[in-house]
Amino acid sequence: MNRYVLNILTKDQPGIVAGVSTAVGNLDGSIISCSQTVLHGYFTLISIVEFPKEYEPNDLVRQMLQQESIGNGYLISAAKMDDRPASARIARMKSTGSSSPRSAMPRRE
């Protein structure tokens, strides 16, 4: 199985955890563990997720954003859990309201 750290940030609203859980399940994945909090009206979810298929972090984020259960205004980042440095495996994208993300913003440090 392939494990990733998945981070979600969006304005707090009902249904975020259900939407993320549905999106992960639709991709045949499982949430292994998670932590969540609300800070000044923003909901954050950090989770360890596992998928049978291996994804590049950009591809996983795109797949998540294309799920119907993910609403507008989500900032999602993913990092594959492996031996590479974190800067080589983190990808971030923001949902923009269209059916596909406006732009990929790979993060390289």
- Residue stretches low in confidence (pLDDT < 50, at least 5 long) are 99-109
> How many β-strand runs?
6
| CATH-level-2 architecture | 2-Layer Sandwich
Tell me the count of domains.
Answer: 1
CATH topology: Alpha-Beta Plaits
Shape: globular
User: Main β-sheet: number of strands, strand sense, barrel status?
Assistant: 6 strands, antiparallel
Strand content: 35-45%
CATH class: Alpha Beta
Q: What average pLDDT do the residues reach? A: 84
Order of helices and strands: EHEEHEEE
How would you sum up this structure in a few lines?
The chain is an alpha+beta fold. The chain is 18% helix and 40% strand.
Descriptive account of the structure:
The radius of gyration is 13 Å and the shape is globular. Helix content is 18%, strand content 40%. It has a single domain, classed as ACT domain (Alpha-Beta Plaits). By secondary structure, the chain is of the alpha+beta class. A six-stranded antiparallel β-sheet has the order 2-3-1-4-5-6, covered by helices on one side. The C terminus is likely disordered. The protein has two helices and six strands, in the order βαββαβββ. A hairpin with a 2-residue loop joins strand 2 and strand 3.
